[in-house]
Specification:
The complex is a heterodimer of chains A (about 325) and B (about 250).
Chain A: H1 8-25, H2 33-40, H3 46-81, H4 93-106, H5 116-139, H6 142-165, H7 170-181, H8 189-208, H9 210-215, H10 220-225, H11 230-252, H12 258-266, H13 274-298, H14 307-325
Helix pairs in contact in A: 1-3, 1-13, 2-3, 3-8, 3-11, 3-12, 3-13, 4-5, 4-6, 4-7, 4-11, 5-6, 5-11, 8-11, 12-13, 12-14
Chain B: E1 3-13, E2 16-27, E3 31-35, H1 42-50, E4 57-62, E5 65-66, H2 72-78, E6 79-82, H3 94-99, H4 114-126, H5 142-155, E7 160-164, H6 172-187, E8 191-195, H7 199-205, E9 208-213, E10 216-221, H8 223-226, H9 229-236, E11 238-243, E12 246-252
Parallel strand pairs in B: 3-8, 3-9, 6-7, 7-8
Antiparallel strand pairs in B: 1-2, 1-4, 4-5, 9-10, 11-12
The chains are: A mainly alpha (about 325), B alpha/beta (about 250).
C-alpha cells in the first residue's frame, strides 16, 4: 500500500474531474463528448449549452461539493471522537440540519431572504454537533455517543414527520421528502453559491486544525500532554463540521453514510493518520456521490431514485461491516 | 535550568479532597519516584502539577510561570508527559506515534522537518525501536508498546518528564528496560518524576522517593532515608522487611 500513497490525492482529483465530466455526458439523452466539450467552451447550440451549464454541471458539482463536505466532516469527527463510526448522518447532525431547513421552508421564513435556509440548516447542524461534543466529553463511551446520535436522528425524524402531517399541500410534502432522503436534482448555480461560503469556511476550519486530530490518536490526556489545546480543538472541529455539514444539507438534504465509507477506504493509504485522511476522504466522498448521482439519473425508474437512498443502500451495509470488525478493546 | 516547583497544592472534586497541601520540586538530573497506594492522589497531583487541572489552592510553577497559565505548546516543550498507557485510536505506524512527541515543535506527520525527523530517529534508536519504525502499532507486544510511548515522550527532548505508571503490566525484563531508558534520560541531564508501584525498583533507580497517602505527601527524600519498615506500614498497610534498599513484602497488616 505504501507505494500508492503519493498518488492518492492526484489520483482522486483526476477521477473526480473525469466523473464530473462523465456526468455531463450521461443522462436521459446522452450527449457525445465533442458536443459537451463544445458546450463548455461556448460553442455548440443553445440547447446543449443549457443542458450542460444549467442542468448537468451544477447537479454534478453539487453532488461533488456535498460529498466533499460530508467526507471531510466525517473524517474530522472520526478524528475528534477517535471512532471510525462517527459521521454527520449516523450522529443525527444531517437529520437535525434538514429538520431546521425544512422548518424554515415550512414557515415561509425563506421569503425573508434566500440566505435563511442555508443558515437554518447550519444552525441545526451546529446545535447537533455541539450537543454531541458535550455528550462525548461526559459519556467517554463511544457506544453511548452513537446511541445519542441515533436518538437525535430519530427525534429529528419524528419532528419532520410531524411537520409533514401538518403540511398544507402535497407540494411541500414532496419538498420535505427531498430533504429527508437527500437529492441534488434540479440544483442550480444559485443554490451552490448560497451554500458555498459556509462550506468553504467550515472546510477551511477543519483543514487548518487537522494537525490536532493526529495528536488525538494518543487519547485526550496524552494529546494535551504533547501540547494540544484540547478545548480549542473540540470547539473548532465542531464548528467546522457543523458549517460544512449544514451547507451540504442546505444543498442536498440529508445524505448518510458517505462520510463513513470514504474515510474508511482512505485510511490505509494515509498510514491511518486522521489529519492526512481529510483531503482524500473529501475527494473520495465527492467522487462517490457524483457516480451515485449518475446512477440515479440513468437507472430507469418511474420516479427518480433519491441520491440519499442510493448512498444509504451502498453505505449502510459497509457501516454494519465496520461496526462488526471493531474489537471491544477500542471502547 | 528548568525546574518544576509545586507549592501547597490542593485539589478538590466536589467535597472529596484528592490532594491536600502537596509540595515538591523536580529539577534536571533527578530521578524521582512517586509512591503511594491506589487512590492516594498521585495522578491528581501530576495533573495539577502539569496544569491540566487547576489546583483548588496553591500553585505549580515551571520556571516561575504557573503551569495552568502556560500555553499547552510552551509547557509541552519543557515538560513531557507520559500518562497511563491507553490504547491508540488508530493503528498508526510506530514512527508516526513517536513523531507526535514533536507536536509542540510543530511537527506535521508525514512531512517532518529535519530537526523533528532527527529527534524522532534518536528517540527510536534510544528505545531500540528503529527496526519496528514502520510497523503499525496494533501489531506490537505490550513491551514494545511501552517502549514506543517512552520514545514518544523522549522525542519531545524536553528537560523534564513526568511518567504515570510506565511499567504497569510489563514483564520484569521490560520493567528494567523502561526504567533503564528513563535513567539514561536523567543521566543526560533530564529530570523525571515517575509513578511506580514496585518499591524495590523505585529504591534501586530513584534518587528521591515521594511517599503519598490520602492526598498528602508523607515523606520526600532519598531511598536510604525514607525507605523504612514503618513507612511501608503507614503508606501501604503492609508488613515488610527492609535491608538497605532491598525490600521484602511479608503480607498485609
Amino acid at each position: 500500500m505504501s507505494g500508492g500513497r503519493a498518488f492518492v490525492i492526484p489520483g482522486l482529483t483526476l477521477a473526480s474531474v473525469l466523473a464530473i465530466f462523465a456526468a455531463c455526458l450521461l443522462g436521459s439523452t446522452p450527449l457525445p463528448t465533442e458536443r459537451v466539450i463544445a458546450a463548455f467552451f461556448g460553442g455548440a447550440d443553445i440547447g446543449d449549452r443549457l443542458v450542460v451549464w444549467s442542468i448537468r454541471l451544477p447537479r454534478a458539482l453539487a453532488a461533488f461539493l456535498v460529498g466533499g463536505a460530508l467526507g471531510l466532516s466525517g473524517a474530522a469527527l472520526q478524528g475528534l471522537l477517535r471512532n471510525p463510526l462517527a459521521e454527520p448522518g449516523v450522529l443525527g447532525v444531517s437529520a437535525t440540519a434538514s429538520l431546521a431547513a425544512t422548518f424554515s421552508l415550512y414557515y415561509g421564513l425563506v421569503g425573508i431572504s434566500a440566505w435563511i435556509m442555508p443558515i437554518a440548516a447550519i444552525l441545526g447542524a451546529l446545535a447537533a454537533t455541539a450537543l454531541l461534543a458535550v455528550a462525548a466529553i461526559r459519556a467517554r463511551s463511544v457506544v453511548t455517543l452513537i446511541l445519542i446520535g441515533v436518538g437525535l436522528s430519530s427525534f429529528a425524524g419524528a419532528l419532520m414527520s410531524l411537520l409533514m402531517n401538518l403540511a398544507p399541500n402535497p407540494f411541500s410534502l414532496s419538498d420535505m421528502v427531498n430533504w429527508m432522503l437527500g437529492s441534488v436534482a434540479n440544483r442550480s448555480f444559485n443554490e451552490i453559491v448560497l451554500a458555498l461560503p459556509f462550506l468553504v469556511a467550515g472546510s477551511g476550519i477543519l483543514l487548518a486544525t487537522r494537525r490536532g486530530l493526529s495528536a488525538l490518536t494518543l487519547g485526550e490526556e496524552a494529546a494535551s500532554g504533547v501540547g494540544l489545546n484540547l478545548h480549542r480543538q473540540r470547539i473548532l472541529t465542531v464548528l467546522g463540521a457543523g458549517l460544512a455539514t449544514g451547507a451540504s444539507v442546505a444543498l442536498a438534504g440529508a445524505i448518510g453514510f458517505v462520510g463513513i465509507v470514504a474515510p474508511h477506504l482512505v485510511r490505509p493509504f494515509v498510514d491511518h493518520d486522521p489529519a492526512r485522511s481529510l483531503v482524500p476522504s473529501a475527494l473520495l466522498a465527492g467522487l462517490i456521490l457524483v457516480i451515485a448521482d449518475i446512477g440515479v439519473r440513468i437507472i430507469p425508474t418511474d420516479s427518480e431514485l433519491k441520491l440519499g437512498v442510493v448512498a444509504a443502500l451502498i453505505g449502510a451495509p459497509i457501516f454494519i461491516w465496520i461496526a462488526m470488525q471493531r474489537r471491544a478493546v477500542h471502547d | 535550568m528548568t525546574e518544576l516547583t509545586v507549592r501547597d497544592v490542593s485539589v478538590k472534586a466536589g467535597d472529596a479532597v484528592l490532594v491536600e497541601d502537596a509540595s515538591f520540586r523536580l529539577a534536571r538530573g533527578e530521578f524521582v519516584a512517586l509512591l503511594g497506594p491506589n487512590g492516594a492522589g498521585k495522578t491528581s497531583l501530576i495533573r495539577a502539577s502539569l496544569g491540566l487541572a487547576v489546583p483548588t489552592s496553591g500553585d505549580a510553577r515551571l520556571d516561575g510561570e504557573i503551569t495552568s497559565n502556560l500555553s499547552p505548546i510552551t509547557r509541552a516543550q519543557k515538560l513531557a508527559y507520559l500518562p497511563q498507557i491507553r490504547p491508540l485510536a488508530w493503528p498508526n505506524t510506530v514512527r508516526d506515534v513517536v513523531a507526535l512527541g514533536r507536536f509542540s515543535h510543530g511537527a506535521v506527520l508525514g512531512r517532518l522537518k529535519r530537526t523533528d525527523a532527527e529527534a524522532v530517529d534518536r528517540a527510536l534508536a534510544a528505545c531500540d525501536l528503529s527496526a519496528l519504525a514502520n510497523r503499525n502499532s496494533d501489531t506490537l507486544s505490550g513491551g514494545e508498546l511501552a517502549r514506543m510511548h517512552c520514545a514518544r515522550a523522549f522525542a519531545a527532548e524536553a528537560p523534564l518528564l513526568i511518567a504515570d505508571e510506565p511499567i504497569a503490566a510489563l514483564d520484569p525484563r521490560h520493567q528494567f528496560r523502561i526504567l533503564d531508558l528513563i535513567a539514561e534520560y536523567v543521566r543526560q541531564g533530564g529530570g523525571a518524576l515517575v509513578v511506580l508501584h514496585d518499591i524495590g525498583l523505585a529504591a534501586r533507580y530513584a534518587s528521591r522517593l515521594i511517599w503519598m497517602k490520602d492526598g498528602r505527601i508523607l515523606a520526600d527524600g532519598p531511598p536510604s532515608e525514607t525507605l523504612t519498615k514503618d513507612r511501608l506500614e503507614i503508606t501501604y498497610g503492609v508488613r515488610a522487611t527492609v535491608d538497605g534498599i532491598k525490600v521484602e513484602m511479608d503480607g498485609p497488616i
